[in-house]
Amino acid sequence: MTGKGQRGSWVRSVGASADAGKFHAIPTPAEILEIISGLLRAPQASIERAIRAALARVASACGADQAQVCRVMPDGRLRATHDWTRSGRTRARRHRMEFCDGWCAGLQGRTPTVIPDSAALPQGPERERLEAEGLRSMVAVPMLRDGRLAGCVMLAWGQCRTELAPEDVTILQSLAEVMLTAAQRRESERQAAEAAQALREDRLLLESILQTSTSAILAFDGAGRIVFANGEAAALLGAGPGALPGRTLEAIGCRLLSREGEPLPATAMPVARALAEGQALRDLHHVLLGADGRQRVLSVNAAPVAPTGASGVRVVLTVDDVTGQVSADTALRTALAEAHQLAFFDPLTGHYNRRGLVEVLRDCLQTCVRENGHLALLYIDVDGMRQVNGTRGQWLGDRLLQAVAARLDGLRPEGGDLGRISADEFVMTCGELHSDPSAAVAAAEALAGQILATLRAPFQVDGLSLEITASIGLAAISAGNTVDGLLKGVDLAVMAAKAEGGDRARAYRADMEQDMVGRVALAQELREAVRRNEFRIFFEPLVRLGAGGLEIVGQEALIRWQHPQRGLLAPLAFIPFAEETGFIRDIDLWVLRAAAEVLAGWAQDPARRHLRMSVNISSAQFLSEEFGPTLREVLAETGADPSRIELEVTEGTLLSNLGAARATMMDLRSLGLTIALDDFGTGFSSLSYLRDLPVDVLKIDRSFLGGLSGPKTNMTILEGIIGLARGLGVEMVAEGVETPSQLAWLRDKGCRTFQGYLFGRPSPEPQLELPPGVEAPGSPTPAADPAVSGLDAPAPAAAVEGAAVGDPEA
Questions:
Q1: Coil, strand, or helix at residue 274?
Q2: What pLDDT is stored for residue 92 in this prediction?
Q3: Which of 221, 376, 558, 668 has a Cα at 20 to 30 A from 201?
Q4: Total-model pTM
Q5: What burial class does residue 778 get, using C-beta atoms within 10 Å of its C-beta: 0-12 exposed, 13-18 middle, 19+ buried?
Q6: With bands split at pLDDT 50, 70 and 90, how would you rate the model's confidence at 494?
Q7: Inter-residue contact 552 to 767 (CB < 8 Å)
Q8: How many C-beta neighbours within 10 Å does residue 655 have?
Q9: What is the residue-wise DSSP string for 712-774?
Q10: Average pLDDT over residues 474-495
Q11: C-alpha dist (Å) from residue 19 to 113, 117, 140, 207
Q12: How far, CA to CA in Å, does 21 sit from each of 84, 117, 136, 156, 609?
């Protein structure tokens, strides 16, 4: 059947039930009016209660068992907002919030949905929901707003119904619309209340900002009268905040002048300009002449405001007193100059720093482009500064760098520039243009020769004489270069100079980058070698001439690297690089620990327990603060006897810091270790330091023995060294003995301890017997020989070579 006067069609049942009845809605007109009046007149706080009461009265009047008011949610689904269930009836709670949702599609057509008998429905969610609630029939009336579904009112019965009068539908429809209106009124009132609260909060926030701002804030009307002024503005103008509104600046005794102090015309006033130009004006500078005669420099921002409401505000000003900033203009310029100095110049030397040198090189490149020529660049790296800083202290190192910079500045060519680009590295440019790159490089090489010769001369710093050298990389500056490319090129050239021993200059070549890749790879391989324990110790015998002839009394241990791809490598293949890059300390520690472990093992072997060993320590390790504690840890871990260990250091190590060297040597001797001076006679001419240092053994460098067949001068020097050792009462070891004649000469001069290939070459296992045919020439016993008087102390150990290379074939 069709509901007369209703939009759409009713949904009919496909069959009738035996207990058929009728749908009916029987509120009296008076009740309907009372329900509607209660909904429309309900106060904001009671609207929800009024809707629930109206739903209960309608459902009860219709004889329904269950009722709901549903609203369309933002996701388009129906959700129950109000429920009613006849007293004594229990609902299935799991369907409470989704019972109406199944009928949403039908209600979207703006027509009531009627289910006379759920048994006639096909199996599906709608039928299951009704049956789960114990319901047989249902009617849902849509609530429409502007032609769109906004919700519905649903009534349901536990019995089936077959008829519904059109007037019943009309009543239900009207009641549904009133419920919707009430709900929407509540929502509108809630939103209005929230908007009013937000407006109040915004107003409070704005007032707080205005009153706490450190800037003076003023609002003016179109006639230039003050409408609002915060506390800062009142203080600036010298009046109470309450006395300002409604008055102009002139009325309170204030005048605005130009920055130069001239009177401003009316059209130039900030308020007038903002109104005339219709846009914000920023950072206007004016002078405020106060009623008290004081002048202040102001920074003013002015913004026009569209005329709205009754406030009358047309322009807002924010004003800051910048008098102090203007009066400090001179100080500011000075500060900027100092900032520029710090940004582009090195505070230690006064020359350009890295940033300044980058700008210099950019200028050089522009000159090359503009003049179609070529300039030259020199990168000067001072050799040995790490050792100076480590042994003499950072302060003395800085003084030395200042002296180096002064010498370099004296050699700087006209038009060139000089700067310190990092700790001990300088950059110099040549200002003379050349027609081709080779000519520029040739000029740079000539200048580099002068620099190297000048830096070799000793530096006198705080009463100390310090000697240094430098490694120089050079390159031509051409139009096609970049700053980064130039610095990278000369850096590679410096590395090449250092790899060849330093104290020289090298020009950049394209193939140097491949060498750099190899150095990086070697550094990584050294790290892995220490971690994977790839180093090995080879032993070379140390021989002493005693009453019974020659006998092996110790072993010199020489380091080797068992490289996984390149095989067994001698020290010369990696030790110089390790010293240059700092890996030498890790290698020193490895050698020290390995030698101590071997010596501890020999103590359990009757054939080797008499042997001694010494460990050659680099200057970086020997003079470090950690060396003493580290050595104690090694001795404790390995159980090695310190009285059978000898530590070898070079003259350069001791002389680089005599105070620290003496303290370290005394500390080590307190443990029972012996100190030997290696390569004696090759480094320094002054020998006075031997009186102050606790040296036990002097090892004569092998170069002296190689010169025995040369001029008589070599023999005289060697005789003097032997006599010096005898006079100081220290043991002497002759290194590099390779022939019987050398052995005989040394024996005749009083030397009794030897080392060299005559007695055996380095091998993985210690040599315990001399080679066949090797014996000492006939000589009296040591007791009968005055040349060896006082030299009957226990034989010294051999040097464990870690940092220095004692084996020329290593």
A1: helix
A2: 55
A3: 221
A4: 0.45
A5: exposed
A6: very high
A7: yes
A8: 16
A9: HHHHHHHHHHHHHHHHHT-EEEE----SHHHHHHHHHTT--EEESTTT---BSS---SPPTT-
A10: 93
A11: 21, 10, 22, 73
A12: 22, 11, 11, 13, 120
Question: How many whole angstroms separate alpha carbon 213 and alpha carbon 451?
Answer: 63
Spatial contact of 613 and 598, defined as CB atoms under 8 Å apart: yes
Alpha-carbon span 592 to 624, nearest angstrom:
15
What are the beta bridge partners of residue 321? 298
CB burial string 243-270: b at 16+ within 10 A, e below: ebeeeebeeeebebbeeeeeebeeeebb
| Cβ proximity of 733 and 698 under 8 Å | yes
Q: Measure the CA–CA gap between 459 and 429, rounded to whole angstroms.
A: 24
**3-class SS at 376?**
strand
Task: Kindly provide the residue ranges of all beta strands, DSSP E only, lying in 365-463, ordered along the sequence.
Answer: 374-383, 418-422, 425-434, 459-461
Q: In this model, does residue 12 exceed pLDDT 50?
A: no
- Count other Cβ atoms within 10 Å, centred on residue 671: 13
Contact 35, 27 (CB under 8 A): yes
Contacts of 183 (CB under 8 A, 6+ apart): 47, 51, 69, 71, 81, 151
> Whole-angstrom Cα distance, residue 155 to residue 138?
6
For the chain, what's the residue count? 810
CA 810 to CA 803: how far, in whole Å?
A: 12
Confidence of residue 473 (pLDDT cuts 50, 70, 90): very high
Task: Calculate what percentage of the chain has a pLDDT beyond 70.
Answer: 79
Q: Give me the mean pLDDT over the 336-344 stretch.
A: 77
Residue 287, phi then psi, degrees to nearest 5: -105, 125
Among residues 665, 650, 796, the alpha carbon closest in space to that of 732 is found at: 796
Give tens-digit pLDDT for 638-693: 999 999 999 988 877 777 677 788 888 999 999 999 999 887 766 554 566 777 78
| Angle ∠(378,382,388) on CA atoms, nearest 5 | 165
The closest of 383, 523, 529, 533 to 466, measured between CA atoms, is 383
Confirm if 717 and 704 have CB atoms less than 8 A apart: yes
- Cα 28 to Cα 583: distance, rounded to the nearest angstrom: 104
In the three-class reduction of DSSP (H, G, I as helix; E, B as strand; rest coil), residue 21 is classed as strand
Q: Which helix (H) or strand (E) holds 173?
A: helix 166-212
Please give the pLDDT value at position 710: 60
Alpha-carbon distance of 96 to 809, in angstroms, equals 96
Two structure tokens written together for 160: 């089936």
Q: Of 9, 1, 23, 4, whose CA–CA distance to 111 is shortest?
A: 9
Distance CA 557, CA 591 (A): 9
**For residue 438, what are its two tokens?**
């080779």
Distance of CA 189 to the CA centre of its chain: 55
Q: Write out the two tokens for 191.
A: 């939103």
pLDDT tens, residue by residue, 287-339: 888 767 778 888 899 888 877 655 578 888 888 888 777 665 656 566 667 77
Q: Does residue 13 register a pLDDT over 50? A: no
Report how far residue 94's alpha carbon sits from residue 445's, in angstroms, rounded to the nearest whole number.
94
Give all strands of the β-sheet with 374-383 in edge-to-edge order.
Answer: 418-422, 425-434, 374-383, 469-477, 504-507
Q: Which structure tokens are listed for 260?
A: 């130069």
Q: Which residues contact 480 (CB under 8 A, 6 or more apart)?
A: none
244 CB-side CA count, 13 A = 24
With a CB cutoff of 8 Å and minimum separation 6, the contacts of 700 are 680, 681, 718, 721, 722, 732, 733, 734, 735, 751
Q: How far apart are CA 171 and CA 176, in angstroms?
A: 9
Residue with the two structure tokens 């840890």 = 633
CA distance 810 to 569: 8
